[in-house]
Design goal:
This protein is α/β, with parallel strands linked by helices. It has 2 domains: 3-157, Rossmann fold (3-Layer(aba) Sandwich), CATH 3.40.50; 176-231, Arc Repressor Mutant, subunit A (Orthogonal Bundle), CATH 1.10.10. It contains 12 helices and 6 strands. The protein has a 6-stranded parallel beta sheet with strand order 2-1-3-4-5-6, sandwiched between helices. Mean pLDDT is 81; it is low at 161-168.
Length: 236
């Protein structure tokens, strides 16, 4: 091993999560091509990939990549579900040093806010070039937040309040339907499922369905977390 090889930075290990195999192949090729052509900065290498939430959670836990490129919309829960189960806030605490960067065709504000709140460090769209993607991977790995143009404004609007402006809306709360808010409000007050069903004149099964939907949309895992979430938003 030469001296230059001994002192060269370790390549950044990237894990791809997208339900389209052809897209994953394209991203892998673009990263390899762009990183090789640039020749500066730490290398970027794909260490694994997954086409579903289950595969992603298992692969991330086993391979422990440096950066996860994460699709937002997938049939079995998408990026938010991967973050809930394998992200920095996961109960198993298996990924405190793994950085998640959303890579999506969507530039909708609700998608951006949802994955950032769930723990992603950045969000770029699939119109990004290979060179720009390599740069984004390096930057999030170094600790910087990275966003495609105009998407950063969504995050600033959601997490800050400008002087003289009215209250900033809560994108997560806006995702809930009026009925889901009703169920959540009663749940946070300590009502049992049977009592909620009686109060709202719906079946217990429907209550369970609404609670499952709220858990999925908020990326929370149990009734206690939901109650605290509702209390923080003054729903109780």
């Amino acid at each position: 091993m030469t001296r230059d090889q001994a002192t060269a930075p370790q390549p950044i290990g990237v894990f791809l999560v997208d339900d389209h195999a052809l897209f994953r192949s394209g991203v892998r090729a673009e990263l390899d091509r762009a990183a090789a052509a640039e020749g500066t900065g730490p290398g970027v290498t794909v260490v694994g990939e997954a086409g579903s939430v289950e595969e992603a959670v298992a692969g991330i836990g086993h391979l422990r990549p440096d950066v996860v490129l994460l699709d937002v919309h997938m049939p079995d829960g998408g990026g938010a579900e991967v973050l809930r189960r394998a992200g920095p806030r996961a109960q198993q605490a298996q990924a405190p040093d793994i950085v998640f960067l959303a890579l999506s065709v969507s530039d909708a504000a609700e998608d951006v806010i949802a994955v950032i709140r769930a723990g992603a460090r950045g969000y770029v769209t699939k119109t990004i070039s290979g060179r720009e993607l390599v740069d984004a991977v390096r930057r999030v790995h170094a600790g910087d937040p990275v966003f495609s143009p105009r998407l950063a404004g969504f995050v600033l609007d959601a997490f800050t309040q400008r002087p003289g402006a009215g209250p900033v809306g809560d994108p997560e709360l806006d995702l809930l339907t009026p009925r889901e808010r009703d169920v959540l409000r009663l749940l946070a007050r300590g009502y049992a499922y049977k009592e909620i069903a009686s109060e709202l004149f719906i079946s217990i099964k429907t209550v369970e369905t609404h609670v499952s939907s709220v858990l999925r949309k908020t990326q929370l895992s149990n009734r206690y977390e939901l109650s605290r979430w509702a209390s923080d938003r003054r729903l109780v």
